[in-house]
Specification:
By secondary structure, the chain is mainly alpha-helical. It has 7 helices and 2 strands, in the order αββαααααα. It has one domain. Helix 2 (62-83) packs antiparallel against helix 3 (90-114) and helix 3 packs antiparallel against helix 5 (129-148). It is globular.
């Protein structure tokens, strides 16, 4: 497999892994919020063909539960990056952390403008639109700063083969395993 093809396969699969990993840490935040406040998690949707969701009933502290999704969705990847800062997969952890910050930030700030998803629930619980936009802007800025340290996409594809065939195959297998696992363990959003 030519090195450019290996890099493309690696990059596409890495983005897929980051998407599903981001959903897992975000929903984990909702679960922790529910457990910490005496709520009962009735359903967690992480199906690959659905938008992730955590249902809590009863939910004695909906504001805490809803905020912990994006807050932990940002903090856990940063913690992972801090722990693995000098290991062999530091660049992958850096990409994942930046991805999680950008996606969670965009989800909350855009949701604040059209009151959907977690942002809609945050607004119903008393948060102001500016708080959500500030959270989003801060998270997105942090994610972009983290990504900036990785270099440009053009540099990644132009550089001499930094992605081995083994790495490309590993990301394909990892993404396939994650999709199968999530499809098997999680109900669809019906």
């Amino acid at each position: 497999m030519p090195h450019c093809s290996r890099k493309l396969v690696f990059a596409v699969c890495l983005v897929g892994l980051c998407w599903y990993g981001m959903m897992v840490v975000h929903e984990l935040g909702h679960v922790v919020g529910a457990c910490a406040t005496g709520g009962t998690v009735t359903r967690i949707v992480l199906h690959p063909l659905s938008i992730s969701r955590t249902d809590v009933s009863p939910n004695p502290s909906p504001a805490i539960v809803v905020w912990l999704g994006p807050v932990m969705g940002v903090l856990l990847p940063l913690l992972l990056l801090a722990i693995g800062q000098h290991c062999r997969v530091e660049k992958i952890l850096r990409f994942f952390a930046g991805f999680c910050l950008i996606v969670n930030g965009a989800y909350i700030s855009v949701g604040a403008l059209n009151t959907v998803g977690d942002a809609g629930e945050m607004l119903r619980c008393g948060a102001s639109t500016w708080m959500l936009i500030a959270f989003g802007a801060t998270a997105i800025s942090g994610g972009l700063m983290i990504w900036h340290r990785l270099g440009s996409v053009t540099e990644f594809f132009a550089a001499e083969s930094s992605v081995t065939l083994r790495m490309a195959v590993a990301t394909v297998i990892s993404l396939s395993a994650m999709v199968l696992l999530l499809a098997e363990l999680s109900p669809s959003a019906q």
